[in-house]
Amino acid sequence: MELIRDSIKTQRVEKSRFDTVDMSQIPFGRVFSDHMLMARYENGSWGAPEIVPYDKLSLAPSVCTLHYGQAIFEGMKALKGIDGQPCLFRPIDNFLRLNRSAYRMGMPALPERVFMEGIRSLVSLDRAWVPSLAQGSLYIRPFMFATDEYIGVRSSDSYLFITFTCPVGGYYNKPVSLLTSKEFVRAAQGGTGSAKCAGNYAASLLPDKLAKSQGYDNILWLDAKEHTYVEECGTMNVFFVIDGTVITSPLTGTILPGITRDSVIRLLKDNGYKVEVRPISIYEVESAYEQGTLTEAFGAGTAATIAKIDRIGYAGRDLTFPPYGKESISSWLLDTLQAIKTGEKDDPYGWVVAV
User: Are 129 and 167 in contact (CB under 8 A)?
Assistant: First the structure.
């Protein structure tokens, strides 16, 4: 891979805002670091990336992404290892997924060198913003959107790629509760369910709001055709432990191919756990709960890492789980993933990339 880090044009802030932030009290997604990475696509090719101070954007009212939704994004994290140095977790997989999303949304592929070396340069420049392990992590948000000033239903000819970062604490600070929905669906076969595009999340906001109004944290989506098979949660892929077997839904084009999901499956299989990737109906979940064989449910995602599920609302009742101890599979996964990310455990997969 061609390295361009030294050649990235960088405009530094005159004065960092870091000293104004209490890193022990960080709200998720509200505090932003000093700089951002930018690259423009025009006339059929990507221009040179540059790093500039984090600032507002100037956009025309006619910019087509505001009207037709050509927008995709990724979610990543940088953590401080036990040596105090920041590192990234599986960034190449975020790059590959971004370009798969771009293809589905009719957008140009981003060059690997812009993504990989651009983000490493950005995190290196703002390394002071990476919290300590006790405080949290640095969330990284790469995104791309259409910039043609044009009103007409077609793919744009110009795009802007930006990455900014923000220090964050935990996304979920307690086990989560989910409400199943048969009224709303997230995605259907042939749609954009496997793309990380803005429209998927826009469509989920009303159901999420209604779930929260009933005391739940998020929605547990069922399939669009039969309203029977569990797909994913609004922020995570979902796993169930039934009779000692960890079960999660397959990638059929209607759920996001989560990078944490893939990490979980590989870790479980390589450490002797029985894993099944197959359709699982909400009726099977309910039956296993009633029979006492459903012992755990948890979600996996970049923001949440591993989030234990303590309650699932379904058909007017709650499936409520007892507190999970340190011996639970979800606790083992959380500890193991964190140890690999920080260098406390060996990384046999090459997942961790130094900044």
Answer: yes
